[in-house]
Amino acid sequence: MNVKSQKKMAARILKVGVSRIKITQTKELGDAITRNDIRKLIVKGIIKKEKKKGQARAQLKKRMEQKKKGRRSGQGSRKGKAYAKKTSKELWIERVRPLRRFLRQLRDTGKIEKSVYRKIYKMIKGGSFRSKKHMLYYLKENELLAKTKKGET
């Protein structure tokens, strides 16, 4: 038995989509041709509207808990450029701290003077050097390293 038109009518009456209309007994539905007939069947409980399906968030919650712990952040989960996850400040810190540490070592071992230390410190702050090697190259080029025994820096 084709109940398409009855379903459409019921959907209009109940103000839901056709897919949410459920019919329990199709035998009694054959006689129902008017909106009033459909209303009577709704009251009887032969035509019912299905509850709206929600969105299960259990899996999402589980995933978010994992992310809070630092999981799921591997190479395959990343989007964007290589340093999109690191801020420019973090990159700056990563570059500057080793340079300053190395400069402090040079000063403490007496390989550079205090005045040179200050000058180079400011240059590091200004972003003049890419790496420790680059800074050492600059010091050697400009003869700012104190003369030491052969074989040392």
Protein described:
- 49% of the residues lie in helices and 4% in strands.
- It has 153 residues and is mostly helical.
- Among the domains are: 4-49, 50s Ribosomal Protein L19e, Chain O, domain 1 (Orthogonal Bundle); 88-141, Non-ribosomal Peptide Synthetase Peptidyl Carrier Protein, Chain A (Orthogonal Bundle).
- A two-stranded antiparallel ribbon has the order 1-2.
Q: The biggest beta sheet, please?
A: 2 strands, antiparallel
- Which fold name is given in CATH as the topology of the domain at 88-141? Non-ribosomal Peptide Synthetase Peptidyl Carrier Protein, Chain A
Biggest sheet strand order reads 1-2
Strand content: under 5%
Count of β-strands = 2
Assign the CATH class of the domain at 88-141.
Mainly Alpha
Structural Rg? 38 Å
Determine the N-to-C terminus distance. Answer: 96 Å
Please give the count of helices. 6
Order of helices and strands: HEHEHHHH
| Average pLDDT taken over every residue | 91
